[in-house]
Every structure is written in C-alpha cells, then in structure tokens.
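In the design runs reported in the main text, the only information available to the sequence generator was the tokenized backbone. The following block is the verbatim input for one such run; it is reproduced so that readers can re-run the procedure and compare outputs position by position.
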C-alpha cells in the first residue's frame, strides 16, 4: 500500500522528507505495526518522523470555528477514548478512557452547555451518552485517517508546537494475559 501510494506520486523514496504516523490510541498490534513501518520508511529515506495522536488526526480536519469538538474513539470495550478540543482546535485537558455513563458529566464540567461537535469512529456512541446536551452534532464518517495524520504532523512542524516522539500511546494496559511458564517435557534433561 505504501509502495503504491509513493508510485502514484511519481517521486522516488528519497524525495520523502517527512513521515507522519498515528501513535494511538488504537489497537495494540495495529499501533505497533504502523510505528514499525513508519520508522523503517523514515530510516531508509532519512526522512523526519513525527507522531501524532489519533485524536489530533481527527480534530485537525474536523474542528470548526466557534464549536467545541469532542473526539470519541472506539476502545473495543465498553469505555470510550475521548478528548475535547476548543474552537481553535487546541486540546482541553488530556485524553481519557471514560465510561459512556460518565461522559455527559465530564463534558459539562469542562465546557458547560455550549454547542458541541462530536467526531471519531465512536461519535454515534458518544452522542448517545450525551443525554443532557441539547446541542451535540455528530460528524459522521470521521475516523482518524491519513490526511488528518499528515495535517496534524504538518502543524507540529510549526516552531511553537511540541514534537511528539513516535512511541505508542495507550490509555490503558494491553488486553493481554501471559501464560504461566511451563516446563516443556520434550526439551532438556528430565
């Protein structure tokens, strides 16, 4: 897929000077694979590697002047991954994993009853949880995507912006249970 995209531009790989990658939150394996691929491409082409959160990748293309934006991403569990952005597109507080039943109270605490746009791949679920909010508009079809990732990375090139290391960003521990160590009876001395 990366090779096809680069081929369509007609540019050689050496022409790359920036590789943008989402660092999460997202699926444990997907984030790790994406980061490994981005690191490999950046290393091979000597391009700069910039990581952006999945929230930034949505917010940069969905923020509209005068509206607060809630980016809600699927956690593949009952909770939602969320972050609020002000009308300029700047984050309000840190990203969080929140149960839908708590979302309404959290949003009201941060921004009161002002109109709100809701974006991300969990926008419908988040909007359903915002029961007391009269003005919440869902932005359908607004998952993190390549264009948002690139735009957010380009914003990070601005001298006032902080660069985020291209390391995985998780809001909770991986859903992994390690098996206990067992002696393999077919190997080694008995």
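Verbatim output:
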């Amino acid at each position: 897929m990366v090779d096809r995209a680069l081929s369509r531009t007609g540019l050689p790989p050496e022409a790359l000077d920036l590789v943008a990658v989402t660092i999460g939150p997202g699926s444990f394996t997907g984030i790790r694979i994406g980061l490994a691929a981005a690191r490999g491409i950046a290393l091979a082409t000597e391009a700069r590697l910039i990581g952006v959160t999945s929230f930034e990748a949505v917010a940069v293309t969905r923020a509209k002047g005068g509206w607060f934006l809630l980016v809600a991403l699927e956690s593949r569990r009952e909770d939602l991954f969320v972050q609020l952005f002000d009308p300029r597109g700047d984050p309000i507080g840190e990203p969080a994993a929140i149960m839908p039943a708590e979302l309404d109270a959290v949003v009201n605490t941060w921004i009161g009853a002002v109109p709100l746009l809701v974006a991300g791949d969990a926008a419908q679920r988040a909007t359903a949880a915002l029961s007391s909010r009269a003005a919440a508009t869902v932005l359908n079809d607004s998952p993190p995507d390549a264009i948002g990732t690139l735009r957010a990375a380009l914003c990070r090139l601005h001298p006032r912006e902080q660069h985020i290391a291209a390391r995985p960003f998780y809001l909770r521990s991986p859903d992994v249970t390690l098996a206990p160590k067992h002696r393999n009876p077919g190997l080694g001395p008995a």
